[in-house]
Specification:
By secondary structure, the protein is mainly α. The protein has a single domain (2-183, 196-390), classed as MFS general substrate transporter like domains (Growth Hormone, Chain: A, Up-down Bundle), CATH 1.20.1250. The chain has 16 helices and no strands. 51% of the residues are buried.
Length: 395
């Protein structure tokens, strides 16, 4: 069993690579524009995808805690592959909308489940203190995979505008056998949920009731929403400053290589830093990036993207560890799904706002989004300070 559990990490690495091997994402704006969609249409589609994901995020996390992470991942990859097949045969906004809805379902099964399985695998081997190291590697492999996907996507679109969709569907099918090879780790503090009321109970404890888990979840979610929003605003910025379309894949690849490098060594970067310092640095760096991009509408702004992606690389695995330490195996996938739910709901609101304000300049979009995240960070930090006063021993 021990040997098989150790193999889980290898299979999870392959699964993360497959999940993040997005050949369409680097050129998605060009793809949609070729089908006569504007930025407002694209952001509405992404909002619909996010809403689909967030509605199903917590129920699918619950399912993962009940039927197991392995079966949930298999189901997620199969549904996602079908979504891309539908995408491949769609040529208008409505067709893309259906595909996004189904893809949201598939991704909600995958989202958080792989991280939950990683932590429980390490916990079963009494190696949970190595979580940041391994989650950092998984994130790093994902970023490297996304970088390679960016190069491939830029090449495939020169052959056919729809070829990246076919490749994407194939990749999700290829991931299924590796999900089958995973071994379900034994649960700790394992109590089977029996009713939907249990989901509501966990949701209230995690999302509403003030605790260390609650404040870490909110902060991690805000950071996640900030990084997701930034990812969708890279290409409009490049178009605004008239970067040649041939360079889109190169820049996207470079950004993800940067994030991958910093994720790989995240455990070393934060080794001697307190949670307070980490949270403060992430907040300041993210806000500097958004406000900086609202001012620098030229090639210099690309350097800010690299700065932001390095921060993203460090923050992703570290903040997941903050949450995992504060929860237990029987609800881990549900809690991580609540985190992803929060990320999606924040992103959906921002994407819909941009989508229904089609005349906003790129400069103003960055400025407004910067103020939105500034307000959210203030909300999160006030909850942390309040918890400190309530529990002086909270670190």
């Amino acid at each position: 069993m021990k040997r098989n559990l150790e193999n889980n990490i290898k299979y999870l690495q392959v699964i993360r690579i497959a999940t993040w091997f997005q050949v369409l994402m680097p050129i998605v704006l060009l793809f949609f524009k070729a089908h006569h969609l504007e930025l407002s249409d694209i952001m509405i589609l992404q909002a619909v995808y996010s809403i689909s994901t967030l509605v199903l995020e917590i129920p699918t996390g619950y399912i993962a805690d009940i039927i197991g992470r392995r079966k949930t991942l298999i189901l997620g990859f199969l549904i996602s592959a079908v979504a891309y097949i539908i995408f491949s045969f769609s040529f208008n906004f409505f067709g893309f909308l259906i595909a996004e809805l189904i893809f949201g379902l598939g991704e909600s099964f995958i989202s958080g489940t792989d991280s939950a399985m990683l932590y429980d695998t390490l916990l079963s081997q009494e190696k949970q203190n190595e979580y940041v190291k391994h989650e950092g590697k998984l994130t790093s492999f994902g970023n490297f995979s996304e970088a390679i996907g960016g190069i491939l996507g830029g090449m495939l679109i020169l052959i056919s505008i729809r070829l990246p969709l076919y490749v994407e569907a194939l990749i999700y099918f290829v991931a299924v056998p590796f999900a089958f090879l995973l071994v379900e780790p034994p649960r700790h503090n394992n109590t089977k949920f029996k009713t939907v009321k249990e989901i509501v109970k966990v949701f209230k404890q995690t999302w509403v009731r003030k605790s260390r888990l609650n404040v870490f979840l909110w902060f991690s979610s805000i950071v996640g929403a900030a990084t997701l929003t930034m990812a969708w605003l890279v290409q409009p910025y490049l178009l605004k400053i008239e970067i040649p379309q041939a360079a889109f894949g190169i820049i996207w690849t470079s950004l993800n290589l940067t994030a991958g490098f910093f994720s790989f060594f995240a455990h070393k970067f934060v080794k001697n830093l307190s949670k307070t310092i980490i949270i403060s640095c992430l907040t300041i760096c993210i806000l500097i990036s958004y406000f900086g991009l609202s001012i620098l509408q030229n090639g210099i702004g690309i350097l800010i993207f690299f700065f932001f992606y390095s921060i993203r690389g460090i923050g992703t695995p570290v903040l997941k560890e903050f949450i995992n330490i504060e929860t237990t195996s029987d609800i881990r996938a549900t809690v991580l799904s609540i985190r992803n739910f929060t990320i999606r709901i924040l992103f959906s609101i921002i994407a819909l706002f941009i989508g229904f304000m089609p005349h906003l300049s790129t400069q103003r979009v960055y400025l407004i989004v910067g103020f939105i995240f500034g307000s959210l960070f203030l909300f999160s930090l006030l909850r942390m300070v309040s918890l400190k006063f309530k529990n002086p021993n909270s670190k």
